[in-house]
């Protein structure tokens, strides 16, 4: 049987998704249960324990197909947005609610238990979190579950940003976190995914996946003078977004933060560490 990427294939030796029967080898095949992320963000890990490596984060309102639970508070499933597979805390998941009508359009906002901003907030919601809004009250949007959120911090689900580079730049100074996808911390591919998603552009989670599928390759990889705003520059295990002909923005472990740097400096530092630029990709209208 053909090999599938385990990061985006809900299959293990003991269990796999029913739709993969005949395509992968597994002891049994099961239908999944649709769930929804009910926490502001939920960690998705390689293994069902809190100290396991963080693969990515699922944001509030994301749908998850759960195929297994270990009886100890962890659910194994696949995210609907980018297809990533892993273990999530069961207490971060709930029954699917009304489809989201709005999304958080700022780096972070608060949900209050009532119409006053003087009340202690009950949640801090990240950019991209999805919400079902039931009504408006004054300058607040009221969710189906009764949370009050500043309406100015939300956008209708179908309204997208127009400049993903500008979205990425808003994260300047945010700490680097392997697997992270919020203003509390993110990694290089997480920054790319969040920025593109804000513009309505589908994007896989990891940098190698992005190098294979985001945009189209630019033939003149060695001609750095030809780089344009919005180009994606790839090294093995790393991706950065070009801001202009001389600078880029990226989440990186050298600064342990999202930083704006000279393209020449990053290329030089990477080369000194034994890492050469592998490709440049560009999204064209």
Characterise this structure.
The chain has 285 residues and is mostly beta strands. 12% of the residues lie in helices and 35% in strands. It has helices at 164-169, 188-198, 207-213, 263-272, and strands spanning 16-17, 29-30, 33-37, 41-45, 54-59, 63-69, 74-79, 85-89, 93-94, 102-104, 108-111, 123-126, 130-131, 133-137, 140-143, 148-150, 154-156, 181-182, 185-186, 216-217, 232-235, 238-242, 247-252, 257-262, 277-282. Strands 20-25-21-22-23-24 form a six-stranded antiparallel β-sheet, with helices on both faces. Strands 8-7-6-3-9 form a five-stranded antiparallel β-sheet, with no helix packed on it. It has a three-stranded antiparallel β-sheet with strand order 13-10-17, with no helix packed on it.
Primary descriptors:
285 residues; mainly beta; six-stranded antiparallel sheet; five-stranded antiparallel sheet; 25 strands; globular
Approximate helicity band: 10-25%
Put simply, the count of helices is: 4
Number of strands: 25
The chain-level structural class is: mainly beta
Arithmetic mean pLDDT: 96
The geometry reads as globular
Largest pleated sheet: 6 strands, antiparallel
Q: Provide the gyration radius in Å.
A: 20 Å
- Would you identify the regions where 5 or more consecutive residues have pLDDT less than 50? none
Strand order of the largest sheet: 20-25-21-22-23-24
Binned strand content: 35-45%
